[in-house]
Amino acid sequence: MILTLSDREEHIFNKVVAALNDESVLEVTYGSHLSVLTFPGLEIHIKEQTVYHNDTLIPLTHREFFTLTYLASHPFWVFSKEQIYEAVWKEHGTNCGSAVTNVVSQIRRKIGDGYIETVVGSGYRFVG
To answer: Given this model, what pLDDT does residue 94 score?
Structure first.
């Protein structure tokens, strides 16, 4: 396979590869019945739809869990509120209003502020 990238695309590609190679940023474990996203102090058990913060089970609503999982599955990627809404709510994001903002606020309240960062004018990103 041959992949051709512009200078800008190559820079982005290199950042993604570096983030994936940095084991302290993301460790994904796949087993026959287990899929887990692991970050410092945070474990997201995808198939069980559970989240542990510092080994404590954190109860999340359906939308909170899937918003967190969506962002954590793409660390450092910036997503607009509309993109998050479309991915989690499975509806067009034009009129998402404050729904995403409220869900992100609830996630932060439950697991702490150090995981989801607001990118002013753009949206949110998971920084783990």
So the answer is: 86
Structure tokens, 127: 């920084």
Is 0.85 topped by the overall pTM? no
Residues 18-126, CATH architecture: Orthogonal Bundle (1.10)
- Quick one: which of 68, 66, 62 has its CA closest to 42? 68
pLDDT tens for residues 98-110? 999 999 999 999 9
Count Cβ atoms below 10 Å from residue 79 Cβ, excluding itself: 21
Give the Cβ contact number of residue 12 at 10 Å: 11
CB 73 within 8 A of CB 67: no
Q: How many residues does the chain have?
A: 128
